[in-house]
Recover the amino acids of this structure.
């Protein structure tokens, strides 16, 4: 690990005064330190080598609040375990609780934060090994994964420059839940829908989000769900715990009799960003909850997939994941 300066600003203003050199798109730039479960790993691997670390663990961003409209306001420093086990989250936003609890291990979830989870890095082996070229690490250097090891990598939103998957479970649930991300900088506060927050790689895979240099995530806002709706998260992976998703689905559904009144769907493990499935929603909303309709919607969504040799199995896996999720969610709503 390379030597770095360490600073722990006592409040947000002091932090924002010192955060000018933080640019998530540039390796070697300064970094915020939250739980450290991604950042410190990558520093030990010499993939990240910030000159300065700004420790944000002392900031008062560790509250989970319910809003008067019935939604949630989650501080960026809320630990993953606290969010997953919060009684309101467990009952009203089951998909979010289930997604977090199916990620990592209890020890990591105790440490990891909401802001850090939103910005966790891909698990692509070429990204995580400093010896390999990678367009995310060094723009223009190439993507060895395309011809190499890519079994776990993305089939949606890929480009000739990058096929790395966004590995987060929490982000998939937050995407289906129509969440918004509040961001602060010395210029003020702005809020971005999570569907607009992540970027597909295109020819600039090192730019993963719309965050600008110096900006910090302060809160995540989750709107209230329609009365009587049900949400759930299904994760398919090589082993039952401590493993990233090969395919996953977060579904929010409200039924009226046999008809689907309201539906939101996002998928994980298959996309270069948490994958909101709006075409599935518009095909199903207002219609009957029936398996043939689910299969048609899954076929339509996955017809956009661009699988490679080793990850072609994800197309069928993702379809089955989605159809199963839709069948159980509509039956339970
Ligand atoms: C062994 C292992 C297994 C895992 N398995 C899973 C899994 O199955 N599913 C899953 O979803 N995740 C998994 N994870 C990832 C884990 O969820 C993330 O490491 C964690 O959520 C990151 O949070 P953190 O607070 O530790 O982030 P940090 O490591 O502190 O930060 C990560 C990045 O976010 C930036 N950052 C942090 N907070 C902010 C903020 N408020 N504003 C702006 N930038 C910020 C940091 O500068 C850094 O670049 C696993 C991790 C490990 C180590």
């Amino acid at each position: 690990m390379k030597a770095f300066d360490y600073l722990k600003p006592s409040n947000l203003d002091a932090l924002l005064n010192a955060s000018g050199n933080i640019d998530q798109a540039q390796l070697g730039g300064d970094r915020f330190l939250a739980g450290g479960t991604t950042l410190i790993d990558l520093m030990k691997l010499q993939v990240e080598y910030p000159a300065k670390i700004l420790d944000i663990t002392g900031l008062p961003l560790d509250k989970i609040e319910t809003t008067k409209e019935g939604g949630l306001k989650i501080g960026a420093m809320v630990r993953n375990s606290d969010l997953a086990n919060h009684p309101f989250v467990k009952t009203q936003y089951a998909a979010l609780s289930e997604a977090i609890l199916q990620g990592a291990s209890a020890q990591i979830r105790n440490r990891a934060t909401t802001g850090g989870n939103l910005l966790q890095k891909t698990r692509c082996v070429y990204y995580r090994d400093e010896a390999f070229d990678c367009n995310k690490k060094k723009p223009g250097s190439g993507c060895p994964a395309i011809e190499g090891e890519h079994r776990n990598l993305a089939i949606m939103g890929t480009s000739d420059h990058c096929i790395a998957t966004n590995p987060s479970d929490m982000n998939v649930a937050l995407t289906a839940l129509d969440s918004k991300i509040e961001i602060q900088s010395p210029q003020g506060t702005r809020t971005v829908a999570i569907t607009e927050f992540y970027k597909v790689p295109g020819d600039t895979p090192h730019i993963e989000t719309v965050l600008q240099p110096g900006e910090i995530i302060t809160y995540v806002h989750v709107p209230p769900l329609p009365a009587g709706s049900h949400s759930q998260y299904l994760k398919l992976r090589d082993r039952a715990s401590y493993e990233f998703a090969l395919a996953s689905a977060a579904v929010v559904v409200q039924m009226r009799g046999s008809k689907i009144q309201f539906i939101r769907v996002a998928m994980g493990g298959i996309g270069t960003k948490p994958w909101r499935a709006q075409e599935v929603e518009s095909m199903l909303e207002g219609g009957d909850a029936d398996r043939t309709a689910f299969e048609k919607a899954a076929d339509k969504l996955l017809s956009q997939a661009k699988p490679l040799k080793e990850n072609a199995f994800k197309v069928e896996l993702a379809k089955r994941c989605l159809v199963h999720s839709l069948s159980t969610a509509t039956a339970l709503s």
